[in-house]
Write a structure and sequence with these properties.
Radius of gyration: 18 Å
Number of domains: 2
CATH superfamily of the largest domain: Hotdog Thioesterase
Distance between the termini: 7 Å
Order of helices and strands: EHHHHEEEE
Number of strands: 5
Number of helices: 4
Length: 152
């Protein structure tokens, strides 16, 4: 795997900045409902705190809030783009939602190598800190990932 020498503790994957939009929140809600139905037609999800400002405000939020899985998907996408099959086969991702992400917020997706440990089979396991960070520096989604580097 090219570039694997750079994956040492302290190394960070170049940050990817994403913007949370109302459309993205709606698409995610509709996709979840569509996938859960046994049909071949798209399903429009009922309004909820992820798709409607009034419902979100009635539940004590300042406005609609993104589903946490969107930020987890952003992290997983950057892991897959960076490490390919080393992440997809035998890797892992664990996230925790610390702060809500609201419409129009700019979010930095951050991956940082914490350790690189050899295995008995010649493979090495990278452990990474992962996060979606708000513009004010606060972590919205945090967690850890592993990537298994196998010899060529």
């Amino acid at each position: 795997m090219s570039g694997s020498a750079q994956w040492v503790p302290g190394w960070s994957v170049p940050t990817r900045t994403r913007v949370m939009t109302a459309e993205r929140m709606r698409w995610y809600a509709d996709a979840l409902d569509t996938c859960s139905h046994d049909g071949d037609q798209p399903v429009i999800a009922p309004l909820n705190i992820h798709t409607d400002d009034e419902i979100a405000r009635a539940n004590g939020l300042p406005g609609r809030v993104a589903d946490g899985m969107i930020s987890t998907n952003w992290i997983s996408t950057l892991l897959a783009e960076t490490f390919g099959t080393a992440y997809l086969i035998g890797g892992s991702l664990r996230t925790r939602y610390v702060r809500p992400i609201f419409e129009d917020e700019h979010i930095d997706v951050v991956l940082r190598v914490v350790s690189r440990e050899p295995g008995d089979d010649g493979a090495e396991t990278l452990t990474l800190d992962v996060a979606c960070v708000k513009a004010d520096g606060q972590v919205a989604t945090g967690g850890a990932a592993t990537v298994v580097l196998r010899p060529a």
